[in-house]
Specification:
There is one protein chain. This protein has a three-stranded parallel β-sheet, sandwiched between helices. It has a two-stranded parallel sheet with strand order 1-2. A two-stranded antiparallel sheet has the order 5-6. Helix 2 crosses helix 7. The chain has 193 residues and is an alpha/beta fold. The relative contact order is 0.16. It has two domains: 4-98, Oxidized Rhodanese, domain 1 (3-Layer(aba) Sandwich), CATH 3.40.250.10; 104-191, Oxidized Rhodanese, domain 1. Helices cover 32% and strands 12% of the residues.
């Protein structure tokens, strides 16, 4: 499967800049994003990539970040046009306001395992969880929250899956590499308090 970087120049939403959530080399402001920007993200074929990019931007201090439901395929299916080549946005002033509370340190996780009061959720498949998992964690696989790899289930279906999650407790999600957990994080942000 070609990378998102390889797909982007061949056709993207008009005016969309390319943001590599795995290798943030350009200052966020150079992409045309300011602290008060409304940012719409999408993926060409893997919703977890867009969700991870959302998490990175929110961690850096961009508050209003959304993900296009269904990504680029849904945009095209709805009649949205695409443009080829690179899109360059006018640079904007951006001052990072990092949110370290979005991370859980290994010490915090260990304290949660030993002392409770934290809901620990594993986003990996059930068979992986059955083989090895953080003690006390509950398994809710990413694949239960998505339809294929490029679409989240409707919010009411997701909420029905997480009905047992205690309200008010801190939630720590994890997976093997960060992709699955980011969809879980977005679900928590959308369905909690």
């Amino acid at each position: 499967m070609p990378t998102a970087r390889a797909i982007y120049p061949g056709g993207h939403v008009p005016g969309a800049a390319f943001f590599d959530h795995q290798l943030v080399t350009d200052p966020i402001g150079e992409l045309g994003i300011g602290n008060d920007s409304v940012v719409m993200l999408y993926a060409s074929n893997l919703v977890a990539s867009a969700m991870r990019a959302r998490w990175v931007l929110r961690y850096a201090g961009v508050e209003n970040v959304r993900v296009l439901k269904g990504g680029l395929p849904a945009w095209k299916a709805a009649g949205g046009g695409v443009e080829a080549g690179e899109s360059v946005s006018e640079p904007r002033a951006f001052t990072p306001v990092f949110k370290p509370e979005m991370f859980a340190s290994s010490g915090e996780l260990q304290a949660a395992v030993e002392g409770g009061g934290v809901y620990i959720e594993d986003a990996l498949p059930q068979d992986w969880h059955d083989r090895e998992h953080i003690p006390g964690s509950v398994c809710l696989p990413l694949t239960d929250l998505t339809i294929g790899w490029d679409l989240l289930r409707p919010q009411e279906e997701i909420e029905a899956l997480v009905v047992a999650r205690p309200k008010g407790e801190r939630v720590i999600t994890y997976c093997g590499g960060g992709f699955a957990a980011h969809i879980k994080i977005a679900n928590i942000l959308n369905s909690r308090n």
